[in-house]
Automatic annotation (TrEMBL):
GO terms for molecular function: oxidoreductase activity. PANTHER family: 17-BETA-HYDROXYSTEROID DEHYDROGENASE 14-RELATED (PTHR43658:SF8), SHORT-CHAIN DEHYDROGENASE/REDUCTASE (PTHR43658). Belongs to the short-chain dehydrogenases/reductases (SDR) family. The keyword Isomerase does not apply. This is 3-hydroxyacyl-CoA dehydrogenase. Keywords: Oxidoreductase. Gene3D superfamilies: NAD(P)-binding Rossmann-like Domain. InterPro entries: NAD(P)-bd_dom_sf, Sc_DH/Rdtase_CS, SDR_fam.
Length: 253
């Protein structure tokens, strides 16, 4: 799919991987809706890339529906959805204060998994109504999982479970949506230079990067964005989860 002039929605687009992706798509000529629960972050980044800012809680049905309506009014029907919104609250299943609070587990799953599905279902319905492009393609959906889906560490039960759900969602969604020409691909990033990592001391950041086989550094958000652009371009990529991690495998802790 050619990106130029297409309408794109990027969740979590106000910072980190989402911000880099929104910028890359805008550079390639897409009309980008920067969707983020943080309205100020969305506004700032949308202004920087010439996009449209939309505040949205991806895990809320009404909020997501309103976000797609706003994006559609600004840019036309969505052809590209990139789900980058997510949270990563840590917590042991049984800690010093007893079992992990159920609402803590539920919140992570709700944002990362249910939020991704919520946006996917609405985007897919909108894409299915559009005229087909080359080879019958109508749209592309890129989800964000994590290598924690495969090697979740101690304290990552909620995060790993939520991202594992995103991985498992990929193939059945791609199979179902194939009939309307909508592709679904997931990226499972490793350790990246995101706001979460930026808050760590420099020596800890260096140590994390040194543990990656090659290149021995943290991933750059632009590298994630480059892969998103390739997925959109390459029509034969479908129903797949792509690890983007420099051959890193996470240890138990």
């Amino acid at each position: 799919m050619q990106i130029k002039d297409l309408a794109a929605v990027v969740t979590g687009g106000g910072s980190g991987l989402g911000a880099a992706t929104a910028a890359q798509l805008a550079t390639l000529g897409a009309k980008v809706a920067v969707v983020d629960i943080n309205r100020d972050a969305a506004d700032s980044h949308a202004r920087a890339i010439g996009g449209t800012a939309i505040a949205c809680d991806v895990a809320d049905a009404a909020s997501a529906e309103a976000a797609f309506a706003a994006a559609r009014a600004a840019h036309g029907p969505v052809r590209i959805l990139v789900n980058c919104a997510g949270i990563g609250t840590a917590g042991r299943i049984v800690g010093r204060d007893g079992p992990l609070k159920l609402d803590s587990f539920e919140r992570v799953v709700r944002v990362n998994l249910i939020g991704s599905f919520n946006m996917l279902r609405l985007a897919a319905a909108e894409m299915a109504e559009q005229d087909p492009l080359e080879e019958g393609e109508r749209g592309v959906i890129v989800n964000t999982a994590s290598i924690a889906a495969y090697e979740g560490q101690i304290g990552q039960a909620a995060y790993a479970a939520s991202k594992g759900g995103v991985v498992s969602l990929t193939l059945p969604a791609a199979r179902e949506l194939a009939r309307v020409g909508v592709r679904v691909v997931t990226i499972a990033p490793g350790l990246f230079q995101t706001p979460m990592v930026d808050g760590l001391p420099p020596d800890i950041q260096a140590s994390l990067g040194a543990g990656i086989p090659y290149p021995s550094r943290l991933g750059r958000p632009a590298e994630f964005a480059d892969l998103v652009a390739h997925i959109v371009h390459n029509r034969f990529l479908n129903g797949e989860v792509i690890r983007l991690d420099g051959a890193f495998r996470m240890p138990p802790r």
